[in-house]
Amino acid sequence: MQEGSVGQRHGGRGLLVLLVVIGFLVAGLVGGLAGASLVREGQASATTPTIAASTTSPASRVQPVAETQATSPAGEVYQRYGKAVVDVIARASSGFFDEQGSGSGVVVDPSGLIVTAAHVVSGAPSVQVQFATGDRLSARVLGTDQANDLALLKVDRLPDGIPVAPLGDSDTVQVGDLVIAIGSPFGLSGTVTQGIVSAVNRSWNPPGDRLRTGLIQTDAPINPGNSGGPLFNAKGEVVGIATMIESPIRGNVGIGFAVPSNTVKRVLPQLEGGAQLQPAWLGISGTDLDAATAQRFGLSIQQGVIVLNVVSGSPAERAGLRPAQIRGNDIAALGDVIVALDGQPVQGMQDLAGRIGAHQPGETVELTVLRNGQQETVRVTLGSWPQQG
User: Fold this and answer.
1) Which residues are within 8 A (CB) of 26 and not within 5 positions of it... i.e. 6 or more apart?
2) Does any domain span residue 89?
3) 3-state secondary structure of 230
4) What is the Cα–Cα distance from 86 to 155, expressed in whole angstroms?
5) Which of the residues 149, 219, 288, 351 is marked catalytic?
6) Is 261 a residue of the active site?
7) Is 149 a catalytic site residue?
8) Total domain count, the chain
9) pLDDT tens for residues 214-228?
10) Out of 87, 119, 122, 219, which one is annotated catalytic?
11) CATH number of the domain to which 126 belongs
């Protein structure tokens, strides 16, 4: 199962199959499959940066946005925390030329810690951060989490008047909630857009990339350059970090995705310590087992993952996983059906991908597979996603 990335990639750096990794935004996201492809991390940078916003004094805890003079939740959040949003400028050398990509970021700690998207700074030896005050400072990349498209930057000091945006509890986010995105779409710094939460715990599988799970979906306009910027709730808490959009064009069509803030909080200590987290890779493609297929092949189970393909040289191949036999667009004969991971039932590809995503390369998992009518246990040592190119 192969795995994948995220994001609309425009601005910088019947059998539907999902490529599983087990375990980021640079080519447009298109169509989902009934199965899921877990592919490689992608990149999504935007254009040039400069952040403009206005707010009050720094604060690490939530301050009631109602105290501001704005007449709308979006205006109140912008006045309070707009200056906590920064432009992230990443420079990389390519031959005789220097390439520049940009995205957004948000200040999350008074010591100068800034969260952004991993694909914004991926492979860039030089990273700068531009604040709403006009200050442009060099930043160090402390750590990255490629599996969740997150990166943690550090500047030596924060300019005067820059607030700290509070990380909220993304588990409390509900469909229909108002959300506000602040960032630099197409290099237009300090841009504010708003919308609602369209879905939670959403999975998305960009073409040629790995399956992403647990995302917040929103119709708040998010465009290239918003990547790494915050998604606020009406109280002024960061509940997500913009990671990608689904669009057949270079722009927003009402489907954007954000990494939940609780994921950010979970990995923040590791990133601050210098961790370079990678998604684990299994190396299969598969599709959900449904009732009709189970009945057709006389199976006693009705959920799991049908292994459709095993990538050559992958952990799955080394462990001996067996793919189904395919004729045309149909399954002629089953190979392995993955029914459990480490003793817990597997409901389908989304479940399998999400749980593998919690692992690191080099860790070993036990897969329970249905093979020739009998359940067998297969131990797999997970690998790292193959490098692009």
Assistant:
1) 5, 7, 9, 10, 12, 13, 42, 43, 44, 45, 119
2) yes
3) strand
4) 12
5) 149
6) no
7) yes
8) 2
9) 999 999 988 888 999
10) 119
11) 2.40.10.10
Q: What is the pLDDT of residues 328-368, one digit of tens each?
A: 989 999 999 999 999 999 999 989 988 998 898 999 999 99
Q: Does one domain contain both 213 and 135?
A: no
Listed residues 272, 296, 313: the one ending a domain: 272
| pLDDT tens profile 46-100 | 333 333 333 333 334 455 554 445 579 999 999 999 999 999 999 865 555 455 6
Q: In terms of domains, do 125 and 91 share one?
A: yes
* Pairing relationship of beta strands 284-288 and 305-310 according to DSSP bridges: antiparallel
Identify the CA nearest to 164 among candidates 233, 110, 244. 110
Of the residues 108, 126, 154, the one at which a domain ends: 154
- Residue 321 CA to residue 307 CA, distance in Å, equals 8
| Residues 261 and 185 grouped into a single domain | yes
Confidence of residue 120 (pLDDT cuts 50, 70, 90): very high
Identify whether the C-beta of residue 103 lies closer than 8 Å to the C-beta of residue 229.
yes
User: Which H or E element spans position 295?
Assistant: helix 291-296
Position 19 scores a pLDDT of: 37
Tokens of 17: 């199959």
Q: Is residue 333 situated within a structural domain?
A: no
Is residue 135 part of the annotated active site? The answer reads: no
Residue 262 lies in a domain: yes
Asked if residue 195 is part of any domain, the answer here is: yes
Catalytic residue among 45, 184, 227, 285: 227
Boundaries of domain holding 197: 169-272
pLDDT tens, position by position, 326-337: 999 899 999 999
The answer to whether the predicted template modeling score (pTM) of the entire model surpasses 0.85 is: no
| Residues 178 and 133 occupy one common structural domain | no
Cα(24)–Cα(375) distance, rounded to whole angstroms? 35
